[in-house]
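The protein record minuted underneath.
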Amino acid sequence: MEDLKILLVDDEPDFLSVIARRLARRNVAVSVASSGMEALEKLKADPVKVVVLDVKMPGIDGIETLRRIKEMMPDVEVIMLTGHADLDVAISGMALGAYDYLLKPADIDELMFKVHDAASVHNSHSS
């Protein structure tokens, strides 16, 4: 499989750096954004196959960011990250086209599995 490149979006800097480092150790190229608007700008400049997106963020939240990503790039797969309290929101994100969701704190192996799974779905869309 070619190098996997994802965009990780979360407003918690510690979470972003820890997960980005762990993914990088598993040969995943990770770019990060700390807001929905930053994520949209980064996607326009440097498209990826998979976005891992936090539901709760200041400014435009994860659901609105998901909606805009899907309008802009329908083939990008989005995995929603959520806390237990926001599980319903993540599930409603599925109706808007999210690929899957993951509860925080995210288990890195489960995240890797979902990212690879989402990337393979993306590849089947674009081939």
User: Anything to note?
Assistant: The longest helix spans residues 108-126.
